[in-house]
């Protein structure tokens, strides 16, 4: 009998994140600067300022800084090996979103050992290992717990040059806005969970590393960016605009979509996470006359999405531009 892993999870992939508004409020309680480490061993370059970046960065010296992050989530697809690949690519993406190179990772696994065979867990771990090794990242050990709901991801450590980092608060007016992967994994994952239909293009895109896009962005002189995951394109664009005190303009017609995404949205396969994303970000966005369906797709909760970069990167579509701060942080042009 084939086990459908997605049926063991309340939410799927990055759509199971804590809603962005609640997370903002939570992070704000920790980012007031009232508590600092005693005799810190390293200087914090990127932390919770601006609502939290993709990873923490601490300086070693003038040429090197350590990037550290962790990411895990519930099954986004039924195939355990593919889930492992996708979860690992997603965790590594936080390092690439800072312009860094992942060096080492450890596994994070929660498993319902009394209801799901450990052989499936081994396939999940194998998928994660294979993607990390393809990235040149060492994988050794980790942590596991028994849990009624399966979850998997990685804690990753990498390296970045302090002067060539990508970060949320460095976007400048006059820059193009680039997106390196198409949207739509959220609605396709929702359809997959409901119907069992497999979307190979979506799996391939989610399992794809953001390594080459990150390297190209740094080489092109880009210094501001983030990856597009559970808060959708609009949510991550808003976080970038807010941290950099700019307005981000998105040309809706230029945003690439996975082949079957619009049809899935039209058929109602929209996650609660996507709807919460849109409700959170709508007050911060001028939508022009954009239809409700298009708004949902721009807020679609992505899993292991691409990089959103304040700068033009060869080989990837320009979807808008960075403007001086206007009346709202995000403008969507139909």
Describe the structure.
It is a single chain. This protein is of the alpha+beta class and 334 residues long. It has two domains: 5-163, PurM-like, N-terminal domain (60s Ribosomal Protein L30, Chain: A), CATH 3.30.1330; 165-333, PurM-like C-terminal domain (Phosphoribosyl-aminoimidazole Synthetase, Chain A, domain 2). Helices cover 32% and strands 23% of the residues. The protein has ten helices and 13 strands. The chain has helices spanning 20-28, 80-96, 118-134, 185-195, 200-207, 211-219, 232-244, 261-266, 272-281, 292-298; strands at 43-46, 56-59, 65-73, 101-111, 138-146, 151-160, 176-179, 225-227, 246-251, 285-286, 307-310, 318-324, 330-333. The strands form two sheets. It has a seven-stranded mixed beta sheet, sandwiched between helices. The protein has a six-stranded mixed beta sheet with strand order 1-2-3-6-4-5. Strand 4, helix 3 and strand 5 (138-146) form a beta-alpha-beta unit. Helix 2 (80-96) packs parallel to helix 3 and helix 7 (232-244) runs parallel beside helix 9. The chain is globular. The relative contact order is 0.18.
